[in-house]
Amino acid sequence: MKTPSPRKYIVSELIEVPIVREIAGQYVHSTEARDAVREQHPDFTDKHGCYVFGIKTKTGVNPVYVGCAGKRPLGFEAFTSHKRATLAEALAYYPNAKLFIAFVVPEDDEDVSDIKEMEGVLIRYASEKNPDILNEVKPSAGRNAKEGGDCSWYIDGVFNGGRGRRSQAGKAFRAMVGIK
Question: What would the pLDDT profile of 79-89 be if each residue is shown by its tens digit?
Fold first, then answer.
């Protein structure tokens, strides 16, 4: 019996998320952020998949939060009040930081049955690069895929995708998440 080919996911470029800076602190305004991200990448914000927030530091862009959106579109899920509160916590440590987001979506179909496993893999890589990541790192999440086990998906130019030339978006995403 023929094994189904792995599902292909693609990444967006790193998109700068506007930050509101006030005397009391920094935060992400939901409407402004959604509009700015949708304007830069309308083809990604209405889909389902994973997203990674990163903060630009002297050494590059470090991941601070990894999430997934299976029920609601990425452009909405990434900027819920819970996510914005989490990001405000991260921004408190970086007073003049720039915040970025990248999306991972299926190339063709809307079958996102793999995104929980993918989120686990991305959290594991991100937590190795940034031990202070705001996600809870579950010991078993994504372990099989990260350690080279059978995987029903791949992220083109980023993870489990074979050889070939990587796109700029793929290179930037790999660097942010810490995939070598």
Answer: 999 999 999 88
